[in-house]
TrEMBL record:
<keyword id="KW-0472">Membrane</keyword>
<keyword id="KW-0812">Transmembrane</keyword>
<protein>
    <submittedName>
        <fullName>YggT family protein</fullName>
    </submittedName>
</protein>
<dbReference type="GO" id="GO:0016020">
    <property type="term" value="C:membrane"/>
</dbReference>
<dbReference type="InterPro" id="IPR003425">
    <property type="entry name" value="CCB3/YggT"/>
</dbReference>
<keyword id="KW-1133">Transmembrane helix</keyword>
<comment type="similarity">
    <text>Belongs to the YggT family.</text>
</comment>
<feature type="transmembrane region" description="Helical">
    <location>
        <begin position="66"/>
        <end position="87"/>
    </location>
</feature>
<dbReference type="Pfam" id="PF02325">
    <property type="entry name" value="CCB3_YggT"/>
</dbReference>
<feature type="transmembrane region" description="Helical">
    <location>
        <begin position="14"/>
        <end position="34"/>
    </location>
</feature>
Length: 96
């Protein structure tokens, strides 16, 4: 059972970094630092969008419009942090 908990925590950690990478990529793309016409860059952007958008879309429906500032990644990171700590401090010790 401990292996399952560790695998779930690892998946949460990987998704955490994918959200951060997606936010950084969107900033670089918005400020024209990277070339969106490059096929490799477009592939990375498409991958990050497809991985993170299903989790960010429901949060965006409930957050207010802040004039171009998207706080949904921050909210999702807070949710993932809470979930990770809940599993690590509450569920994992109960199974040991």
């Amino acid at each position: 059972m401990l292996a399952l908990i560790q695998t779930i925590l690892l998946a949460i950690d990987i998704y955490w970094w994918l959200i951060i990478a997606s936010a950084i990529f969107s900033w670089l793309f918005a400020f024209n630092v990277i070339n969106g016409r490059n096929q490799f860059v477009a592939t990375i952007g498409d991958f990050l969008y497809r991985v993170t958008e299903p989790a960010l879309r429901p949060i965006r429906r409930f957050t207010p419009d802040l004039g171009g500032i998207d706080i949904s990644p921050i909210i999702l990171l807070l949710i993932l942090f809470f979930l990770r700590e809940f599993i690590r401090t509450t569920i994992a010790p109960a199974l040991l």
